[in-house]
Amino acid sequence: MAVGVVVVPGYGDSEPAHWQSFACRRHPQWRRVRQADWERPEVEPWVVALDAEVRALDGPLVLVAHSLGCITVVEWAARRRADVRGALLVAPADTDELPFFADVPLAPLPFPSIVVASRNDPYVRFERAQAFAAAWGSRLVDAGAAGHLNAAAGYGDWPRIGFWLGPWLGTTPGAGAAAGRGVAAVLPG
């Protein structure tokens, strides 16, 4: 059975030049969460929208999230169950100080995951992203000084995500769940 992919953008959606948008154009079979209100995020509607995309797939899946989308995935995982092979959580936003979303859940995820974090992300301190990864049981990838890992930081067409997703999708060798916990550096590309 083929493994489905659900892309989970963050606040404001991912613009056309964002790596998530490039990935969706490269893989038109991937599903992308559509939120009713990208500018005023609320936990419940965002989790419901993610759940709808997950339920539309029949079989195992992989989640590919960015920023507030990462927190949506973690919130969803605390409430729902599905056959998730893994989750790539890139630049998780720290929502504890935001009045419009929930505090970040700090429980282990029920599936393998990788957190990719930058040392100069304006939306989460690296040490906080490290704490998220540890609490979630995620492998941490240190992206160095990579901003918010979005189009503005130079992350448009980013084929490196295939390296991380490959083991979960059964397509290529890479550093997915089989690599275990720990910290790794981002490889170029």
UniProtKB/TrEMBL annotation:
Endpoints of the signal sequence: none
InterPro entries membership: AB_hydrolase_fold, RBBP9/YdeN
Gene Ontology molecular function terms on file: hydrolase activity
UniProt cross-references to SUPFAM superfamilies, sorted A to Z: alpha/beta-Hydrolases (SSF53474)
Matches recorded under Pfam families: Ser_hydrolase (PF06821)
Organism superkingdom: Bacteria
Protein name: Alpha/beta hydrolase
Source organism: Plasticicumulans lactativorans
Lineage, highest ranks first: Bacteria, Pseudomonadati, Pseudomonadota, Gammaproteobacteria, Candidatus Competibacteraceae
